[in-house]
Amino acid sequence: MRLSAILWIVTAISAGCGGPKTFPVTGKVTFKGQPLVGALVEFETTVDGKRVTAHGETQEDGSYKLESPGLGAGAVAGQHKIIVSPPGREPGGRPPPAFDRRFQSYATTPLSFTVKPEGPFVHDFEVTGPRR
Most distant CA pair in the chain: distance in Å? Predict the structure, then answer.
C-alpha cells in the first residue's frame, strides 16, 4: 500500500510539472499603417483536446510579447488563431480605433500563425477597418 501511495504521488507530481513547452513570439500590430497601442493580442490553439492561449498587450510602438498563463513566456507549438481586442478608452482620451469586429472573435478572425518547436518567432500583422 505504501508503494502504491508513493507511485501515485510521483505520478501526480510528474503530471503537474512542466506542461507544454513554450516558444518566444513577438511582433507588431498596426491599424491603417500606424501602431495599434494598448490592444490585447491573443493566440489560441488546442493541446491534447484542451484550449491553450497566450496573450500580450501592444505597446506604444505596436509591439507585443506573448505570455502563456501557467506555462511561461511565449506560446506553445501548433496552429494558432489570433484575435485582437481593442484598447479601452483612457479617461479624457480619444475613443479606441474602430477596427473590424471579425478580428475580435476566434470564430471569425482571418488571422492565424503556426508556432513550431524551434522559435523565436516574430509575427507582425495589421487589423483593418470595418467592412462596408
Answer: 69
